Amino acid sequence: MIEAQTLADTLSAGLKQLGLTLDQAQQDLLLGYVGLLEKWNKTYSLTAIREPERMVPHHLLDSLAPLPHFKAATGARILDVGSGFGTPGIPLAIARPDWQLFLLDSNHKKTTFLRQAIVDLKLANVTVVTERVESFRPEAPFDVITSRAFSDLAEFVKLTRHLLAPSGEWAALKGVYPHEEIALLPADVKSVAVDTLNVPGIDAERHLIHLVLNEG
After folding, report:
1. What is the pLDDT of residues 79-119, one digit of tens each?
2. How far is residue 165's CA from residue 213's CA, in Å, rounded to a whole number?
3. What is the span of the domain harbouring residue 134?
4. Residue 157 annotated as binding?
5. How much is the average pLDDT of 60-83?
6. CATH number for the domain including 132?
7. CB atoms < 10 A from the CB of 10, how many?
8. Residue 8 to residues 13, 23, 52, 56, 156, Cα–Cα distance (Å)
9. Most buried pick, 41, 98, 139, 183, via CB within 10 A?
């Protein structure tokens, strides 16, 4: 069994490589989330990654790597579509308590875990929604809609466009650069930036795709 200090050191070093400054309480919450994930995973099979030492880079750092590239001000409403067991939503909520995170998934097993996690971690800025995204009708639209391996870009945009604020953006987390997916976007949606992400502990490509409605 890996020591808690080793996990803490891995997280701290990874955050430093990403240029992120999180206080000790935030880092403790992130590791608490990993602990909950490991515990629930034994019964619920939430993620194929079962070792905490792999969860730190693959779930925490992978979710936090795009943080500097998110265009969201204090008080921003952010929707994590197909949140699953809470990535990137829960790590983002811990890192930015000034944002309002909405974690949406249609899988009751996964949202049961999410609800318990936000209670245990005392995350007041997180709302869990058990619903299909195309049926979701919130009280207000979202400044940023994000996802991690939810669908291809065209489908992602199609299913969520009714949820995006007029000046908002989609921020989709992808692996390899999705040239074909970008080429297949509808005419009224454009890619305005693609950030290459280097995630400590992960030897694989990562990109953040920024999409907006094309007013022209």
Report:
1. 999 999 999 999 999 999 999 999 999 999 999 999 999 99
2. 10
3. 4-213
4. no
5. 96
6. 3.40.50.150
7. 21
8. 9, 12, 11, 9, 35
9. 41
Among candidate residues 59, 46, 48, 49, the one with its CA nearest the CA of residue 10 = 59
Dihedral angle of Cα 69, 201, 156, 96, to the nearest 10 degrees: -40
Structure tokens at 12: 């701290």
Residue 82 is labelled as binding a ligand: yes
Asked if residue 134 belongs to a known ligand binding site, the reply is yes
Q: Which of 171, 102, 112 is nearest to 133 (CA)?
A: 102
**Which residues are bridge partners to 145 per DSSP?**
79, 170
Q: Where are the alpha helices (DSSP H) in 103-211?
A: 108-120, 153-160, 179-183
* Residue 193 CA from chain centroid, whole number: 18
CA–CA separation, 27 and 45 (whole Å): 24
What is the residue type of 118?
I
Compute the distance between CA of residue 55 and CA of residue 180 in angstroms, rounded to an integer.
Answer: 30
Q: Looking at 7-152, which runs of residues are DSSP E strands?
A: 77-81, 100-105, 126-130, 142-148
- Split into its structural domains, the chain has a count of 1
176 is in an annotated binding site: no
User: Which pLDDT band holds residue 9 (cuts at 50, 70, 90)?
Assistant: very high
